[in-house]
Amino acid sequence: MTSAEPVRPAVPRAREVQASVLAAFQLVEDARYLGSSRRRRRLRVRALAERAVADRKLARDLRAG
Question: In this predicted model, which residue has the larger pLDDT, 51 or 1?
Answer without folding.
Answer: 51
